[in-house]
Amino acid sequence: MPLWYFRDEDLRTLQKIIAEANPSPRQKQLLEPLLDAPQSTVSWPQAIRSYNSLHKEEKRVARESIRTQFRRLNDSLENVYEKTWRERNIVLKIGFSRDQGIFFYGLRLPVGIHRDDCFKAGDLVIPARILTSDAYIFEREHFHVSWADCENCQIRKRARCDIQARCQYRPPFDIQSIKDDWSHKCDTSLLKLWNGPLLKLQRIQIDPTREITEREHINLDFCHAEYFDFLASNHQIHLEFLAGISDGIRAKYAPDLDSLRDLHLSLLANTPGLTTLIVHPTFLPKKGPVRYECLLVKRESRSQLAHYPGAWQTSTAGNIHPNKDLRNGLPDPFKAAARESRRELADLQIRASELACLGLSIDLLTGQPEFLFYAETNQPLEQIVHSKESYEQKTIRVVKMPTELCSLLTYEEWAPSNAVCAILTMEKCLTDFTRAKIKFCP
Predict the structure, then answer these.
(1) pLDDT tens, position by position, 279-303
(2) Which residues contact 440 (CB under 8 A, 6 or more apart)?
(3) CA-CA distance, 60 to 57, in Å (whole number)?
(4) What is the C-alpha to C-alpha distance for residues 22 and 71, in angstroms, rounded to an integer?
(5) For 309-342, what is each residue's pLDDT tens digit?
(6) CA gyration radius for the chain?
(7) Please, what CATH class does the domain formed by 130-139+271-437 belong to?
(8) Which residues pair with 396 in a beta bridge?
(9) CB 224 within 8 A of CB 199
(10) Burial of 417 by CB count in 10 Å (0-12 exposed, 13-18 middle, 19+ buried)?
(11) In the chain, where the domains are located
Protein backbone atom coordinates (compact mmCIF):
# COMPACT_ATOMS: atom_id res chain seq x y z
CA MET A 1 0.00 0.00 0.00
CA PRO A 2 1.40 3.43 -0.84
CA LEU A 3 1.43 6.60 1.14
CA TRP A 4 -2.09 7.98 0.73
CA TYR A 5 -2.42 11.75 0.35
CA PHE A 6 0.82 12.76 1.98
CA ARG A 7 1.82 16.32 1.26
CA ASP A 8 5.27 17.75 0.51
CA GLU A 9 5.99 18.68 4.12
CA ASP A 10 5.20 15.13 5.21
CA LEU A 11 8.42 13.85 3.61
CA ARG A 12 10.52 16.00 5.91
CA THR A 13 8.41 14.99 8.89
CA LEU A 14 8.68 11.32 7.91
CA GLN A 15 12.46 11.57 7.76
CA LYS A 16 12.55 13.25 11.17
CA ILE A 17 10.28 10.67 12.78
CA ILE A 18 12.26 7.74 11.40
CA ALA A 19 15.39 9.34 12.87
CA GLU A 20 13.63 9.75 16.22
CA ALA A 21 12.67 6.07 16.12
CA ASN A 22 16.39 5.33 16.53
CA PRO A 23 16.74 2.63 13.85
CA SER A 24 19.63 0.19 14.09
CA PRO A 25 22.69 0.63 11.84
CA ARG A 26 21.37 -2.13 9.58
CA GLN A 27 17.96 -0.45 9.34
CA LYS A 28 19.62 2.89 8.57
CA GLN A 29 21.46 1.25 5.69
CA LEU A 30 18.19 -0.09 4.29
CA LEU A 31 16.39 3.23 4.77
CA GLU A 32 19.21 5.41 3.46
CA PRO A 33 17.71 6.01 -0.03
CA LEU A 34 14.61 7.48 1.60
CA LEU A 35 16.31 9.45 4.36
CA ASP A 36 18.69 11.15 1.92
CA ALA A 37 16.22 11.59 -0.95
CA PRO A 38 15.68 15.15 -2.15
CA GLN A 39 12.08 16.23 -1.97
CA SER A 40 11.85 16.61 -5.76
CA THR A 41 12.70 12.97 -6.38
CA VAL A 42 9.75 11.59 -4.42
CA SER A 43 6.42 11.27 -6.18
CA TRP A 44 3.48 11.32 -3.78
CA PRO A 45 1.31 9.40 -3.17
CA GLN A 46 3.18 6.65 -5.01
CA ALA A 47 4.75 3.98 -2.84
CA ILE A 48 8.43 4.36 -1.99
CA ARG A 49 10.43 1.25 -2.72
CA SER A 50 14.04 1.99 -1.82
CA TYR A 51 15.39 -1.51 -1.81
CA ASN A 52 17.07 -1.48 -5.24
CA SER A 53 20.67 -2.73 -5.16
CA LEU A 54 20.40 -4.25 -1.69
CA HIS A 55 17.66 -6.60 -2.81
CA LYS A 56 19.87 -9.52 -3.89
CA GLU A 57 22.00 -9.27 -0.79
CA GLU A 58 18.95 -9.34 1.46
CA LYS A 59 17.70 -12.52 -0.22
CA ARG A 60 20.47 -14.34 1.57
CA VAL A 61 19.31 -13.02 4.93
CA ALA A 62 16.83 -15.13 6.86
CA ARG A 63 13.32 -13.84 6.23
CA GLU A 64 12.37 -14.20 9.85
CA SER A 65 15.27 -11.98 10.87
CA ILE A 66 14.07 -9.29 8.47
CA ARG A 67 10.52 -9.55 9.77
CA THR A 68 11.80 -9.11 13.30
CA GLN A 69 13.79 -5.99 12.34
CA PHE A 70 10.82 -4.29 10.80
CA ARG A 71 8.44 -5.25 13.56
CA ARG A 72 10.80 -3.58 15.99
CA LEU A 73 11.06 -0.49 13.80
CA ASN A 74 7.28 -0.36 13.49
CA ASP A 75 6.98 -0.52 17.27
CA SER A 76 9.40 2.41 17.55
CA LEU A 77 7.51 4.38 14.92
CA GLU A 78 4.25 3.66 16.72
CA ASN A 79 5.64 5.14 19.93
CA VAL A 80 6.87 8.23 18.10
CA TYR A 81 3.56 8.48 16.25
CA GLU A 82 1.66 8.62 19.51
CA LYS A 83 3.81 11.53 20.61
CA THR A 84 4.29 13.43 17.38
CA TRP A 85 1.69 12.54 14.76
CA ARG A 86 -1.49 12.31 16.75
CA GLU A 87 -2.42 15.87 15.76
CA ARG A 88 -1.58 15.10 12.12
CA ASN A 89 -4.01 12.17 12.10
CA ILE A 90 -1.59 9.95 10.16
CA VAL A 91 -1.14 6.17 10.24
CA LEU A 92 2.37 5.02 9.30
CA LYS A 93 3.80 1.53 8.91
CA ILE A 94 6.91 0.06 7.28
CA GLY A 95 6.74 -3.31 5.57
CA PHE A 96 9.13 -5.71 3.91
CA SER A 97 8.59 -8.19 1.11
CA ARG A 98 11.14 -10.45 -0.56
CA ASP A 99 9.68 -9.43 -3.92
CA GLN A 100 8.82 -5.77 -3.28
CA GLY A 101 11.62 -4.82 -0.92
CA ILE A 102 10.96 -2.02 1.57
CA PHE A 103 7.70 -0.14 1.29
CA PHE A 104 5.89 2.45 3.36
CA TYR A 105 2.22 2.42 4.22
CA GLY A 106 0.91 5.80 5.25
CA LEU A 107 -2.60 7.17 5.51
CA ARG A 108 -3.56 10.75 6.27
CA LEU A 109 -7.11 10.98 7.61
CA PRO A 110 -9.37 14.04 7.62
CA VAL A 111 -9.89 15.99 10.82
CA GLY A 112 -12.54 14.29 12.93
CA ILE A 113 -11.93 10.81 11.49
CA HIS A 114 -9.93 8.47 13.72
CA ARG A 115 -8.09 5.33 12.66
CA ASP A 116 -10.53 3.32 14.79
CA ASP A 117 -13.35 4.52 12.52
CA CYS A 118 -11.74 2.87 9.50
CA PHE A 119 -12.14 -0.58 7.98
CA LYS A 120 -9.27 -2.85 9.08
CA ALA A 121 -7.97 -5.93 7.30
CA GLY A 122 -4.82 -7.39 8.83
CA ASP A 123 -2.22 -4.62 8.66
CA LEU A 124 -4.33 -2.47 6.33
CA VAL A 125 -6.27 0.57 7.53
CA ILE A 126 -8.73 1.66 4.81
CA PRO A 127 -10.60 4.98 5.08
CA ALA A 128 -14.08 3.50 4.75
CA ARG A 129 -16.83 2.15 7.01
CA ILE A 130 -19.22 -0.60 6.07
CA LEU A 131 -22.75 -1.67 6.80
CA THR A 132 -22.76 -5.39 6.13
CA SER A 133 -23.23 -8.84 7.60
CA ASP A 134 -20.46 -11.35 8.21
CA ALA A 135 -22.85 -14.24 7.71
CA TYR A 136 -25.02 -13.30 4.74
CA ILE A 137 -25.18 -11.39 1.53
CA PHE A 138 -27.99 -8.98 0.76
CA GLU A 139 -30.51 -9.72 -1.94
CA ARG A 140 -33.11 -7.54 -3.58
CA GLU A 141 -35.84 -8.40 -1.10
CA HIS A 142 -33.71 -7.18 1.81
CA PHE A 143 -33.96 -3.56 0.61
CA HIS A 144 -37.11 -1.50 0.98
CA VAL A 145 -36.74 1.44 -1.42
CA SER A 146 -38.89 4.58 -1.42
CA TRP A 147 -38.83 8.16 -2.59
CA ALA A 148 -37.98 10.58 0.18
CA ASP A 149 -40.75 12.85 1.41
CA CYS A 150 -40.00 16.54 1.64
CA GLU A 151 -40.36 16.38 5.41
CA ASN A 152 -37.35 14.05 5.51
CA CYS A 153 -35.18 16.24 3.28
CA GLN A 154 -33.36 19.47 3.93
CA ILE A 155 -35.66 21.40 1.59
CA ARG A 156 -38.32 21.94 4.27
CA LYS A 157 -41.09 22.75 1.81
CA ARG A 158 -44.54 23.36 3.16
CA ALA A 159 -46.23 20.89 0.83
CA ARG A 160 -45.15 17.42 -0.23
CA CYS A 161 -43.81 17.07 -3.78
CA ASP A 162 -46.24 15.51 -6.20
CA ILE A 163 -45.54 12.02 -7.51
CA GLN A 164 -44.33 13.21 -10.90
CA ALA A 165 -41.97 15.95 -9.70
CA ARG A 166 -40.63 13.98 -6.75
CA CYS A 167 -38.27 15.46 -4.25
CA GLN A 168 -35.21 17.35 -5.55
CA TYR A 169 -31.97 17.92 -3.65
CA ARG A 170 -31.50 21.63 -2.97
CA PRO A 171 -27.85 22.36 -2.09
CA PRO A 172 -26.93 24.93 0.57
CA PHE A 173 -25.68 28.32 -0.56
CA ASP A 174 -21.94 27.53 -0.62
CA ILE A 175 -22.45 24.28 -2.51
CA GLN A 176 -24.81 26.01 -4.94
CA SER A 177 -22.12 28.63 -5.62
CA ILE A 178 -19.58 25.91 -6.48
CA LYS A 179 -22.19 24.24 -8.66
CA ASP A 180 -22.74 27.49 -10.52
CA ASP A 181 -18.97 27.78 -11.05
CA TRP A 182 -18.93 24.35 -12.72
CA SER A 183 -21.79 25.42 -14.97
CA HIS A 184 -19.93 28.61 -15.85
CA LYS A 185 -16.76 26.67 -16.70
CA CYS A 186 -18.69 24.44 -19.06
CA ASP A 187 -20.32 27.43 -20.75
CA THR A 188 -17.16 29.53 -21.20
CA SER A 189 -14.36 26.99 -21.74
CA LEU A 190 -13.53 23.80 -23.59
CA LEU A 191 -14.57 21.78 -20.55
CA LYS A 192 -17.56 19.80 -21.74
CA LEU A 193 -19.55 18.10 -19.02
CA TRP A 194 -23.09 16.85 -19.00
CA ASN A 195 -25.02 17.76 -15.88
CA GLY A 196 -26.93 14.49 -16.00
CA PRO A 197 -29.59 13.25 -13.58
CA LEU A 198 -28.52 11.23 -10.55
CA LEU A 199 -30.04 10.19 -7.23
CA LYS A 200 -29.22 11.27 -3.69
CA LEU A 201 -29.30 8.58 -1.02
CA GLN A 202 -31.13 10.58 1.60
CA ARG A 203 -31.50 8.09 4.43
CA ILE A 204 -30.66 4.55 5.51
CA GLN A 205 -32.83 3.06 8.23
CA ILE A 206 -32.51 -0.29 9.97
CA ASP A 207 -34.95 -1.74 12.46
CA PRO A 208 -33.18 -1.00 15.79
CA THR A 209 -34.89 -3.94 17.51
CA ARG A 210 -33.17 -6.53 15.29
CA GLU A 211 -29.60 -7.48 14.57
CA ILE A 212 -28.23 -7.09 11.08
CA THR A 213 -27.36 -10.79 10.98
CA GLU A 214 -31.09 -11.54 10.97
CA ARG A 215 -31.19 -10.17 7.41
CA GLU A 216 -33.82 -7.60 8.22
CA HIS A 217 -35.00 -5.15 5.63
CA ILE A 218 -32.95 -2.01 5.11
CA ASN A 219 -34.98 1.06 4.19
CA LEU A 220 -33.44 3.33 1.55
CA ASP A 221 -34.87 6.79 0.78
CA PHE A 222 -33.87 8.47 -2.47
CA CYS A 223 -34.45 11.88 -4.00
CA HIS A 224 -33.35 13.44 -7.28
CA ALA A 225 -30.02 15.19 -7.81
CA GLU A 226 -27.62 16.15 -10.61
CA TYR A 227 -24.02 15.41 -11.50
CA PHE A 228 -22.92 18.95 -10.69
CA ASP A 229 -24.39 18.48 -7.20
CA PHE A 230 -21.90 15.68 -6.69
CA LEU A 231 -19.00 17.74 -8.06
CA ALA A 232 -19.87 20.68 -5.79
CA SER A 233 -20.19 18.60 -2.61
CA ASN A 234 -18.63 15.13 -2.27
CA HIS A 235 -16.01 15.71 -4.95
CA GLN A 236 -15.29 19.19 -3.59
CA ILE A 237 -14.47 18.01 -0.06
CA HIS A 238 -12.07 15.50 -1.62
CA LEU A 239 -10.28 18.33 -3.44
CA GLU A 240 -10.24 20.43 -0.26
CA PHE A 241 -8.81 17.52 1.70
CA LEU A 242 -5.98 17.09 -0.81
CA ALA A 243 -5.28 20.83 -0.62
CA GLY A 244 -5.17 20.80 3.20
CA ILE A 245 -8.30 22.96 3.65
CA SER A 246 -9.93 22.11 6.98
CA ASP A 247 -12.68 24.74 7.17
CA GLY A 248 -14.40 24.14 3.85
CA ILE A 249 -17.53 22.31 2.73
CA ARG A 250 -16.91 19.28 4.94
CA ALA A 251 -16.66 21.27 8.16
CA LYS A 252 -19.76 23.32 7.35
CA TYR A 253 -22.18 20.76 5.98
CA ALA A 254 -20.95 17.23 6.75
CA PRO A 255 -18.84 17.12 9.92
CA ASP A 256 -20.02 13.58 10.72
CA LEU A 257 -19.13 11.39 7.75
CA ASP A 258 -18.23 8.23 9.63
CA SER A 259 -21.62 6.52 9.79
CA LEU A 260 -24.10 5.36 7.16
CA ARG A 261 -26.85 5.43 9.77
CA ASP A 262 -26.39 9.20 10.15
CA LEU A 263 -26.41 9.85 6.41
CA HIS A 264 -29.53 12.00 6.70
CA LEU A 265 -27.55 14.55 8.74
CA SER A 266 -25.26 15.27 5.79
CA LEU A 267 -26.11 18.16 3.47
CA LEU A 268 -23.95 16.78 0.65
CA ALA A 269 -25.36 15.30 -2.55
CA ASN A 270 -24.33 11.76 -1.50
CA THR A 271 -25.05 10.22 -4.90
CA PRO A 272 -24.47 6.50 -4.26
CA GLY A 273 -21.78 4.71 -6.25
CA LEU A 274 -21.88 1.13 -7.50
CA THR A 275 -18.80 -1.05 -7.09
CA THR A 276 -18.83 -4.49 -8.73
CA LEU A 277 -16.10 -7.15 -8.77
CA ILE A 278 -16.42 -9.80 -11.51
CA VAL A 279 -15.07 -13.21 -10.43
CA HIS A 280 -14.39 -16.29 -12.54
CA PRO A 281 -14.15 -19.68 -10.73
CA THR A 282 -12.39 -22.69 -12.23
CA PHE A 283 -14.09 -26.00 -11.41
CA LEU A 284 -12.90 -29.59 -11.26
CA PRO A 285 -15.36 -32.52 -11.29
CA LYS A 286 -16.49 -33.50 -7.80
CA LYS A 287 -14.14 -30.97 -6.20
CA GLY A 288 -15.95 -27.68 -6.77
CA PRO A 289 -14.13 -24.42 -7.47
CA VAL A 290 -10.37 -24.77 -7.09
CA ARG A 291 -9.24 -21.35 -8.30
CA TYR A 292 -10.71 -17.87 -8.51
CA GLU A 293 -9.70 -14.98 -10.73
CA CYS A 294 -11.03 -11.43 -10.76
CA LEU A 295 -10.92 -8.45 -13.08
CA LEU A 296 -9.36 -5.18 -11.88
CA VAL A 297 -9.08 -1.74 -13.46
CA LYS A 298 -6.68 1.16 -12.90
CA ARG A 299 -7.88 4.47 -14.36
CA GLU A 300 -4.94 6.64 -15.37
CA SER A 301 -6.70 10.00 -15.91
CA ARG A 302 -5.09 12.84 -13.93
CA SER A 303 -7.69 15.51 -14.64
CA GLN A 304 -9.37 17.56 -11.93
CA LEU A 305 -12.46 15.39 -12.33
CA ALA A 306 -10.64 12.11 -11.81
CA HIS A 307 -11.66 10.24 -8.68
CA TYR A 308 -8.63 8.41 -7.20
CA PRO A 309 -6.54 8.59 -10.41
CA GLY A 310 -3.96 5.85 -10.74
CA ALA A 311 -5.62 3.75 -8.04
CA TRP A 312 -6.81 0.19 -8.50
CA GLN A 313 -10.55 -0.30 -8.69
CA THR A 314 -12.95 -3.18 -9.12
CA SER A 315 -14.19 -4.45 -12.49
CA THR A 316 -16.95 -1.88 -13.03
CA ALA A 317 -18.34 1.21 -11.36
CA GLY A 318 -21.19 3.63 -11.92
CA ASN A 319 -24.25 5.34 -10.52
CA ILE A 320 -27.99 4.76 -10.29
CA HIS A 321 -29.83 6.48 -13.13
CA PRO A 322 -33.21 7.87 -12.03
CA ASN A 323 -34.89 6.84 -15.31
CA LYS A 324 -33.04 3.75 -16.57
CA ASP A 325 -32.71 1.90 -13.27
CA LEU A 326 -36.27 1.83 -11.95
CA ARG A 327 -38.14 -1.28 -10.88
CA ASN A 328 -41.84 -0.84 -10.18
CA GLY A 329 -41.24 2.90 -10.27
CA LEU A 330 -38.50 2.81 -7.60
CA PRO A 331 -34.69 2.93 -7.84
CA ASP A 332 -33.06 -0.52 -8.07
CA PRO A 333 -29.31 -0.68 -7.25
CA PHE A 334 -29.12 -4.26 -8.59
CA LYS A 335 -30.52 -3.27 -11.97
CA ALA A 336 -28.15 -0.30 -12.08
CA ALA A 337 -25.07 -2.42 -11.24
CA ALA A 338 -25.98 -4.95 -13.95
CA ARG A 339 -26.52 -2.18 -16.52
CA GLU A 340 -23.20 -0.51 -15.71
CA SER A 341 -21.38 -3.87 -15.89
CA ARG A 342 -22.82 -4.63 -19.32
CA ARG A 343 -22.03 -1.10 -20.49
CA GLU A 344 -18.38 -1.22 -19.47
CA LEU A 345 -17.88 -4.89 -20.38
CA ALA A 346 -19.75 -5.34 -23.62
CA ASP A 347 -19.15 -9.11 -23.81
CA LEU A 348 -20.23 -9.76 -20.22
CA GLN A 349 -23.57 -11.54 -19.95
CA ILE A 350 -25.01 -10.77 -16.54
CA ARG A 351 -28.44 -10.12 -15.08
CA ALA A 352 -29.41 -8.21 -11.96
CA SER A 353 -30.53 -11.45 -10.28
CA GLU A 354 -26.96 -12.84 -10.57
CA LEU A 355 -25.43 -10.04 -8.50
CA ALA A 356 -24.72 -10.46 -4.79
CA CYS A 357 -24.64 -7.37 -2.60
CA LEU A 358 -21.96 -7.51 0.08
CA GLY A 359 -23.30 -4.44 1.85
CA LEU A 360 -22.89 -0.68 1.77
CA SER A 361 -19.83 1.41 2.52
CA ILE A 362 -19.10 5.07 3.03
CA ASP A 363 -15.87 6.63 1.80
CA LEU A 364 -14.49 8.58 4.75
CA LEU A 365 -12.55 10.92 2.45
CA THR A 366 -15.53 11.99 0.35
CA GLY A 367 -18.61 10.94 2.32
CA GLN A 368 -19.97 9.13 -0.73
CA PRO A 369 -22.00 5.96 -0.01
CA GLU A 370 -21.41 2.94 -2.24
CA PHE A 371 -23.15 -0.36 -2.87
CA LEU A 372 -20.67 -3.25 -2.95
CA PHE A 373 -21.43 -6.09 -5.38
CA TYR A 374 -19.73 -9.16 -6.74
CA ALA A 375 -20.79 -11.63 -9.40
CA GLU A 376 -19.44 -14.97 -10.61
CA THR A 377 -19.30 -15.65 -14.33
CA ASN A 378 -18.37 -18.71 -16.35
CA GLN A 379 -16.98 -16.54 -19.13
CA PRO A 380 -13.15 -16.44 -19.29
CA LEU A 381 -12.03 -13.04 -18.04
CA GLU A 382 -9.35 -12.73 -20.76
CA GLN A 383 -12.10 -12.55 -23.35
CA ILE A 384 -14.03 -9.94 -21.40
CA VAL A 385 -10.96 -7.72 -20.99
CA HIS A 386 -10.84 -6.86 -24.69
CA SER A 387 -14.35 -5.43 -24.56
CA LYS A 388 -13.60 -2.85 -21.85
CA GLU A 389 -14.57 0.73 -22.66
CA SER A 390 -11.74 2.73 -24.21
CA TYR A 391 -12.92 6.33 -23.69
CA GLU A 392 -10.43 6.79 -20.84
CA GLN A 393 -6.90 5.58 -20.26
CA LYS A 394 -6.80 2.57 -18.01
CA THR A 395 -4.90 -0.57 -17.11
CA ILE A 396 -6.91 -3.78 -17.05
CA ARG A 397 -5.65 -6.88 -15.31
CA VAL A 398 -6.85 -10.36 -14.47
CA VAL A 399 -5.46 -11.46 -11.09
CA LYS A 400 -5.62 -14.63 -9.03
CA MET A 401 -7.38 -14.75 -5.68
CA PRO A 402 -6.11 -14.50 -3.03
CA THR A 403 -2.36 -14.39 -3.78
CA GLU A 404 -2.09 -11.70 -6.45
CA LEU A 405 -5.07 -9.74 -5.16
CA CYS A 406 -3.65 -9.56 -1.62
CA SER A 407 -0.30 -8.45 -3.05
CA LEU A 408 -1.97 -5.57 -4.91
CA LEU A 409 -3.95 -4.62 -1.82
CA THR A 410 -0.75 -4.46 0.20
CA TYR A 411 1.64 -2.69 -2.16
CA GLU A 412 -0.56 -0.56 -4.45
CA GLU A 413 -2.94 2.35 -4.08
CA TRP A 414 -6.69 1.60 -4.10
CA ALA A 415 -9.91 3.54 -4.04
CA PRO A 416 -11.13 2.88 -0.45
CA SER A 417 -14.54 1.30 -1.10
CA ASN A 418 -13.12 -0.75 -3.95
CA ALA A 419 -10.48 -2.24 -1.63
CA VAL A 420 -13.21 -3.12 0.87
CA CYS A 421 -15.25 -4.78 -1.90
CA ALA A 422 -12.26 -6.90 -2.95
CA ILE A 423 -11.58 -8.06 0.61
CA LEU A 424 -15.22 -8.92 1.34
CA THR A 425 -15.44 -10.82 -1.96
CA MET A 426 -12.47 -12.98 -1.01
CA GLU A 427 -14.09 -13.71 2.33
CA LYS A 428 -17.29 -14.85 0.61
CA CYS A 429 -15.64 -16.91 -2.15
CA LEU A 430 -12.66 -18.47 -0.33
CA THR A 431 -13.52 -20.61 2.67
CA ASP A 432 -9.99 -20.53 4.09
CA PHE A 433 -9.41 -16.79 3.70
CA THR A 434 -9.68 -14.22 6.46
CA ARG A 435 -8.89 -10.53 6.25
CA ALA A 436 -6.39 -10.97 9.10
CA LYS A 437 -4.05 -12.77 6.66
CA ILE A 438 -3.16 -9.52 4.87
CA LYS A 439 0.25 -8.69 6.32
CA PHE A 440 3.04 -6.26 5.48
CA CYS A 441 5.75 -8.81 6.23
CA PRO A 442 4.40 -12.12 4.86
Answers:
(1) 999 887 776 677 899 998 887 665 5
(2) 70, 93, 94, 95, 96, 97, 103, 105, 123, 410
(3) 6
(4) 14
(5) 778 899 999 999 999 999 999 999 999 999 999 8
(6) 23
(7) alpha beta
(8) 297
(9) yes
(10) buried
(11) 3-108, 130-139+271-437, 142-265
